[in-house]
Design goal:
The protein contains 5 helices and no strands. The protein has 122 residues and is mainly α. The chain has one domain.
Length: 122
Amino acid sequence: MSLRAYQQAAQRSETPRDAEHRLFAQVTRALIEVSARPREQLGAWMDALDWNRRMWSALAVDCARADNALPEPTRARIISLSLWVGRYTSQVMRGQEDIEALIEVNRMMMQGLSSRPEPARA
């Protein structure tokens, strides 16, 4: 089986939760990689930070939808985190804050996405 066929098969069997985890992993990896680069490599920094901010913005938009199945308190917390990510990212871009807090928030989200709820008992 070719790599492309394997990737397509894996994506078809992927749950939305798995897809979100995979996206968080990709974005977080980009943040980690850029954090090792000098700040003078502004383009690379801006690309990774913007990707992270866009991901969080998309999550907030999804959580604001009335048909979102997450509990309302969870949706509100994600929207609140998205707003914080937006503000904090601007500070990182200006060199006023460190990128590590963004990486840590993403890692916490990945932990939450990787944990599976207990199956319902009959």
